[in-house]
Amino acid sequence: MTSFVKRIQAWQQQSGRHHLPWQGTTDPYKVWLSEIMLQQTQVSTVIDYYLRFLKKFPSVTALANTPVEEVMPYWAGLGYYARARNLHKCAQIVATQYKGLFPSQASELQKLPGIGESTANSIAAFCFHATTPIMDGNVKRVFTRFYGIEGYGAKTDKQLWEQAYKNVMGEQQIGQYNQGLMDLGSMVCTRSKPKCQECPLRPDCYAFKYSKQAVLPSKKPKKIIPQRETIMLIIRTQHKVLLQKRPAQGIWGGLLSLPELTNEAELNTWLTEHPTLHAQKMASFEHIFSHYRLLIHPVRISATTTLQDSARLAITDTQWYPLSDISSLALPSPVMKLLSTDPEL
């Protein structure tokens, strides 16, 4: 019987994706960048960001030598901004401690910021011909359905990894195999309406045999996602808007955003302390993070006199930015959307 690995390789060669901009390279920098961007983000979204990022930062040394504040605008909109901060830290370590060359061993790669087992294994396989498997959402879906692996959590993840390492023992060209698994999960073994008739694994697939495609992989136990609220202030004067730099740690760390107040009582107090200001409430909207929902209440602030000194507003770490520069700033996606669609701006 043809091995699991060879079936995936043969399918990838004939039917897999071959047009992605990070394919066909053994440059660890390019593979690493694509792997980090693809975490929690769809391929179609990543492509433009990846190309724009590479054009600005063509090497790990170029990235390391750029202040993180200048890097963030090229990540804005991708979300999960800790990835960008770790990306920059990792680049600096590779540039200084490894003389600009990524380690070739997966175990060494995992010591770098933001690089987990799957990313390290991917870099080692694609760039250094290591026999190291990967494990992303697409691979998990293929494995759970083919092998009939049920359950959710650390125990199931351990079982999946054990199977992954078992599969590659004694095999070659693992880079193509890893790519094939990702392609198969993305193109054929999809979450809903999988194209089983096109799958090279169908004859031996547990889920196909027992009609369990809809229940595998096992669903994550549902939990109530808490909701938080914030008031965002759109403070403008002439053709500028006041933006505040967020702390390095936490949500939207290091990005520019609109000044925020906790609740309406705090807003009323702030307006009382600044009698020349007028507030106009806008339609509230919700932004969903992985672990909570944020209900945003935008408030447009205008003044009877021209605002020149932001310090008088008692809001720290702020600066006026021309409205014409909004599209090039490192702004969280809901803030960018809010400023881009406000007819008053």
UniProtKB/TrEMBL annotation:
Domain HhH-GPD: residue ranges: 37-187
Class of enzymatic activity (EC top level): hydrolase
InterPro entries: A/G_AdeGlyc_MutY, DNA_glycosylase, Endonuclease3_FeS-loop_motif, Endouclease-III_FeS-bd_BS, HhH-GPD_domain, HhH_base_excis_C, HhH_motif, MIG/MutY
Cleavable signal peptide: none
Keyword Transferase: no
EC code: 3.2.2.31
Record keywords, A-Z: 4Fe-4S, DNA damage, DNA repair, Glycosidase, Hydrolase, Iron, Iron-sulfur, Metal-binding
GO BP annotations, alphabetical order: base-excision repair; mismatch repair
Textual note on the cofactor: Binds 1 [4Fe-4S] cluster.
Annotated Pfam families: HHH, HhH-GPD, NUDIX_4
GO molecular function (one): 4 iron, 4 sulfur cluster binding
Cofactor(s) the protein needs: [4Fe-4S] cluster
Catalytic reactions of this protein: Hydrolyzes free adenine bases from 7,8-dihydro-8-oxoguanine:adenine mismatched double-stranded DNA, leaving an apurinic site
Lineage: superkingdom: Bacteria
Entry function: Adenine glycosylase active on G-A mispairs. MutY also corrects error-prone DNA synthesis past GO lesions which are due to the oxidatively damaged form of guanine: 7,8-dihydro-8-oxoguanine (8-oxo-dGTP).
Family: Belongs to the Nth/MutY family.
Descriptive protein name: Adenine DNA glycosylase
Organism of origin: Pelistega suis
